[in-house]
Amino acid sequence: MKTINISRVLRLLWQKKGITRIDIAEKLSLDKSTITKIMNILLDRQFVLEMSEGEAGPQGGRKPIHLTINKDFGCVAGFEVQPNYWKLIVVNLEGDMVYTHTQATQINADNIIPVLIDAVGFLKTKMDELNKKLIGIGIGASGIMNPQRGIINQSIPLQINTPVDILTPLSEHIDVPLYLDNDANCGAWGELAFHKSPHLQNFIFLLIEIREDEIIQKKFGGLAVGLGVVLNNKVYYGSSFSAGEFRSVFSKKEDINQFSLHIDDVVSINRKRETFIRFADEIAENIALLVNVLNVSNVFIAHINVHFHDVLIPILEKTIQEKSPYQMQPPCVITNSSYGEEAVAYGAAGIILEHIFAHPEIPQSSERKVIDPIDIILTI
């Protein structure tokens, strides 16, 4: 039995709750005996459950049985790492929240490893208390990440200037797969994982954060914007993992932040609506160029600690239309992120789900060994 067929079946079961064996065989062009063998494995390990019997066909015969992924087979965890806190979200295989916790603490290059070791220890204790099985952990943080090796190359807010290996020391404390990625990329992973849509293949995830830490504001302005770019159903990393990091085309060398706004304007951006509108106009010009050049279908926006986010979508829609040389059919759809201020932590968990239920015919964006669903089914 080919592993790729099991992966195809799992992907379809995850996307279409309540599907029957007959429908799976037809959609995947597999014979019924192959589906029977696969389902026997999945049902025996309780990774898949039988839901109910449907109505028999017009000529009678055996009633079809509807199937679903066992959402409580295990849980995945996502961490968001910020300079002054870490946030944890645990979800089941359907993406339903099981547990969440935010821990205030200062995090920087000097202590990030012990802080994350403690955070993972906290997670393991909580999973034991909840009597839940942990399948994998995703971690999202701001900066340039090497997800293939689990390394933070650089991070301005975390004050990391030389590469920090996250995977190796944490792997000594956990026995489940661990993935690290940039926070905006995590947001993109979350939309990929939780929408489960085969049509959501090309989009931009726009992450806007306003940090009110005085040190960060003084050095970098406190306004941070990152992009997660998904092309052909894959998160795009670029040649050195810095895809999505940018400075506005209107910024000048002397500007200490990404945009042309004066530092005093950046500091007051959450207090003055007219200042935020100026920022929205500038970010819209930058995003419109990407939307039109790449011809993406969607833009998802996550705002963290942003007060005037209601003005951004109308400005983006107007600017994208104005900058398009042709009438876009259909137009790019711009919406707020599905998970609001939890988008990074949810997305970090989504990395694990997207790898478990990965489409076997779409190459993974990481050269590291991806999570093998068969290994999980047979070993947990």
Quick rundown:
By secondary structure, this protein is α/β, with parallel strands linked by helices. The chain is built from twelve helices and 16 strands. It has helices at residues 3-15, 21-28, 32-44, 112-130, 167-171, 183-195, 214-220, 263-267, 273-294, 312-323, 343-356, 373-379, and strands at residues 19-20, 48-53, 65-69, 75-82, 85-92, 97-104, 134-141, 144-146, 151-154, 164-165, 178-182, 203-210, 223-231, 234-235, 298-304, 333-336.
What is the CATH first-level class name of the largest domain?
Answer: Alpha Beta
Main pleated-sheet profile: 5 strands, mixed
State the fourth-level CATH superfamily of the largest domain.
Answer: ATPase, nucleotide binding domain
Find the CATH topology of the largest domain: Nucleotidyltransferase, domain 5
Question: How many individual β-strands?
Answer: 16
N/C terminus separation? 21 Å
Total individual domains: 3
What do you see in this structure?
The chain has 380 residues and is an alpha/beta fold. 39% of the residues are buried. Helices cover 36% and strands 23% of the residues. The chain is built from twelve helices and 16 strands. The strands form four sheets. A five-stranded mixed β-sheet has the order 6-5-4-7-11. The chain has a five-stranded mixed β-sheet with strand order 14-13-12-15-16, with helices on both faces. The protein has a three-stranded antiparallel β-sheet with strand order 1-3-2. The chain starts with a helix and ends with a helix. The chain has three domains: 67 residues, Winged helix-like DNA-binding domain superfamily/Winged helix DNA-binding domain (Arc Repressor Mutant, subunit A, Orthogonal Bundle), CATH 1.10.10.10; 150 residues, Nucleotidyltransferase, domain 5; 143 residues, 2-Layer Sandwich (Nucleotidyltransferase, domain 5). About 2% of the residues have low confidence.
